[in-house]
Design a protein that fits this description.
The protein is of the alpha/beta class. The protein has 2 domains: about 50 residues; about 250 residues, 2-enoyl-CoA Hydratase, Chain A, domain 1, CATH 3.90.226. It is about 50% helix and about 15% strand. Helix 4 crosses helix 13. The longest helix is centred in the first third of the chain and has 20 residues. The radius of gyration is 21 Å and the shape is globular.
Amino acid sequence: MQHYLEFERPIGELESKIKELRRLSDSDGVNIVEEVGRLESKLDRMMVQTYSKLTPWQKTQVARHPERPHTSDYIDQLIEDFVPLAGDRLYGEDYALITGIGTFEGRSVLIMGHEKGSDTESRVRHNFGMARPEGYRKAQRLMKMADRFSLPIISLVDTSGAYPGIGAEERGQAEAIARAIETCLQIKVPFLSIVIGEGGSGGAIAIAVADRVMMLEHAIYSVISPEGCASILWRSGDQAEQAAEAMKVTASDLAGLKVIDEVVKEPLGGAHRDPQAMITEVGKALARALDELEETEPGALLQSRRDKFMDMGRQGLS
């Protein structure tokens, strides 16, 4: 059963009506092609009107849609001969962050990404995509390995943030994130990152300090969730919609601020409407970017990446 967001209810009602008419036509032999065609045209117009003017809060809801393709889906479709690599060699494995090597468009690559899970069992196993320190130390270890063997790196970001539990704090969550960011700024191989859903706080940027940072059209990327921001500023999560508007969390806002480099267009209605088309489009965007980056000398690549992030926010400062 398809999951509809609050603002999608009129779309859901119209789609249900179309399905019911088709069912009646099949069972009773009634020819209602003309009526179905009229409703489908109305549905197309409604979809375009709705998704062409989404508010930041509505985009936040789309970014969190449970039926959006996840990191595991992209790996299954885009990476051949994927071999998962586990453990930080210090504490243990973190299933919130999938990592491994495989072949992408004929190239050997290291790929890593947050995995939220798709049902109750997998969500618990992957801790809803919230990585612990061992996840970020695993990322450090494998980024250094990729650098040693000249493997390009692809990261897929989809997390509400790093796990804030007591155990994670005791094992040095902040330090692990900081070291992961430091590692991103030290490797000399091409590094691509794409926000496929929700990019939250240090948990996201720990694996996203890349040469080319992309976002899906309806993804979000921010220092804190809108609910978290609202709870701090207004002492109530009820102001999340207002917070999302003020925080500039959308792909178009962040492209304008030059925090990201490219916006990858989603199918009409969001990635959850056509996961296969979305995965194909992401594959094309990653391949184009990797072709461009591989033409750059490693030393220049490293310096350009460092300059890019060190210069953020300096525009307009004297």
